[in-house]
Write a structure and sequence with these properties.
It is built from four helices and four strands, in the order H-H-E-E-E-E-H-H. The chain starts with 13 loop residues before the first helix and ends with a helix. Strand 3 and strand 4 form a beta hairpin. 39% of the residues lie in helices and 15% in strands. The longest helix has 58 residues. It has a domain of 145 residues. It has a four-stranded antiparallel beta sheet. The chain is of the alpha+beta class and 216 residues long.
Amino acid sequence: MNIAMNHHTDQPGTRHARRGLALVEVILSTLIIGGLLASVMTVIGVSAQRGVLTDEKTKAAWLAHDLAAEIACYPCRYRLSSEPITDRNVVSTVLGRAASLDPGAFTQGSTRTSFNDIFDFDNWSSTPPVDPDGTPIPGYTGWTRQVDVDAVDPDTLNTRAFNDSAARIVVTVKHRNRVVHTETIIRTKATDALRGADTGIDWQSIVDQFSQSWGQ
């Protein structure tokens, strides 16, 4: 009885070719995985960076708005340093600026103790940012707030020779000498007068009475 036996024998070089192919597959897989990991790490890095930038912009916006709120409490008029402030709260209330933005928003301190109108803030700056009483605001090391106040034409808002009838106030916030946020407000003496400043009208009482009537 003849038994046919087939003995499979790899041709010369076949085993080496398979080993070479397996090595190529490993290398390609490593490159692909490495590329994916690099992409993932890049995405994570960008997300983290965006988070930092978002937090930085939020802080800068708060700093700018906080100081703008303080400045808005003062009337748009040039006062002598001896003149008392009698209408600051009225202007602030009607403009919708809240003292709660900063616990010391209505405190006159060592750094701004003589300020009694918006023009006193011109060219003022502090590093780090401070409350009106001169106390540094916690968590803002390396930050700067500065103010520029320019007299402007109330009709065109173009800069002009000094006149206290209208002013453009720009609050700039910097972090590590880089501008992060600016806030601009326009103030006019005429608008202040209409809202009760320097007129003797107790707008706060009117607002309170209206609020009480509305709530009934």
